């Protein structure tokens, strides 16, 4: 199988290249530090398998997936915890949670091989039934379970993010970018450098302000407005 690596951290690149060399069925066609480079390569030379990091410069791994109409088999390489990965909208073949062993790497490759033997399609579609209905938020030493539908909005607050639900607010040590990539993209939208909103909680939009049910008012950032309005009005 032909494959490429999309990973911006040199140590992680080295690990993946060494593991790929040790697996006889894989042929590495390229290593890219950002999704733009990988996108240009794939337009000219499609591959069978893509090792994709989630946190990348310019375009995140998840946003990169959204741009691909006919993606190859995808194995995510990430430092995210398992509960977050299970919430992804895309049916990736497997993920490798850093740091991962060679044995775990081989197991991921075997899943790709098995998928091909079974003749399963490579094109992945969003499957809303596979999305988690609940998430766990790490707050201090606690892991608090929250129903995704109860989240109204998420706001960056210094080194933390504040998650406002229908009943209360929670502080999380995860970044706003983390939540933007982890939550269902058809339900939650980034509207500002400091805000993510649940579109089902919106009562009205007036100019550059969003009004949520319950009297909450949030600004729409100039850089986000056009994309956000197109998404909700289509």
Please give the structural blueprint.
Blueprint: E1 2-6, H1 10-22, E2 27-32, H2 35-44, E3 49-53, H3 61-67, E4 73-78, H4 82-85, E5 94-97, H5 102-117, E6 134-139, E7 142-147, E8 151-157, E9 160-165, E10 169-172, H6 176-182, E11 188-192, E12 195-198, E13 202-206, E14 209-212, E15 217-219, H7 222-233
Parallel strand pairs: 1-2, 1-3, 3-4, 4-5
Antiparallel strand pairs: 6-7, 8-9, 8-12, 9-10, 11-12, 13-14, 14-15
Question: How would you describe this structure to a colleague?
Answer:
There is one protein chain. The chain folds into two domains: 116 residues, 3-Layer(aba) Sandwich (Rossmann fold); 92 residues, LytTr DNA-binding domain (OB fold (Dihydrolipoamide Acetyltransferase, E2P), Beta Barrel), CATH 2.40.50. It has seven helices and 15 strands. A hairpin with a 2-residue loop joins strand 13 and strand 14. It is 29% helix and 32% strand. It has a five-stranded parallel sheet, sandwiched between helices. It has a five-stranded antiparallel sheet with strand order 10-9-8-12-11. It is elongated. With 234 residues, it is α/β, with parallel strands linked by helices.
Largest sheet: 5 strands, parallel
Structural class: alpha/beta
Q: What percentage of the residues does DSSP assign to strands (E)?
A: 25-35%
Distance between the termini: 39 Å
Tell how many strands the DSSP assignment holds: 15
Uncertain runs are 83-87, 121-131
How many helices? 7
Rg over CA atoms: 19 Å
Arithmetic mean of pLDDT = 83
Side by side, the strands of the main sheet go 2-1-3-4-5
CATH hierarchy class name of the largest domain = Alpha Beta
Percent helix range: 25-40%
Give the H and E element order: EHEHEHEHEHEEEEEHEEEEEH
Q: Give the overall form.
A: elongated
């Amino acid at each position: 199988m032909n494959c490429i690596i999309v990973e911006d951290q040199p140590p992680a690149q080295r690990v993946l290249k060494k593991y790929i060399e040790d697996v006889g069925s894989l042929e590495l066609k390229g290593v890219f530090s950002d999704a733009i480079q990988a996108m240009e390569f794939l337009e000219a030379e499609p591959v069978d398998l893509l090792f994709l990091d989630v946190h990348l410069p310019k375009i995140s791994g998840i946003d990169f997936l959204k741009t691909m109409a006919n993606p190859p088999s995808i194995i995510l390489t990430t430092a995210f915890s398992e509960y977050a990965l299970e919430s992804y909208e895309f049916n990736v073949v497997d993920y490798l949670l850093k740091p991962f062993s060679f044995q775990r790497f081989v197991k991921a490759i075997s899943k790709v091989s098995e998928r091909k033997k079974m003749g399963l399609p490579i094109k992945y579609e969003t499957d809303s039934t596979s999305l988690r209905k609940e998430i766990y938020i790490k707050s201090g030493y606690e892991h608090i379970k929250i129903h995704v539908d109860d989240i109204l909005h998420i706001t960056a607050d210094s080194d933390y993010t504040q998650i406002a639900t229908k009943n209360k607010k929670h502080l999380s040590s995860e970044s706003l970018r983390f939540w933007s990539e982890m939550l269902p993209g058809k339900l939650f939208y980034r509207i500002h450098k400091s805000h993510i909103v649940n579109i089902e909680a919106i009562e009205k939009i007036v100019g550059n302000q969003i009004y949520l049910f319950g009297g909450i008012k949030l600004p729409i950032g100039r850089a986000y407005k056009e994309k956000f309005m197109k998404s909700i009005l289509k």
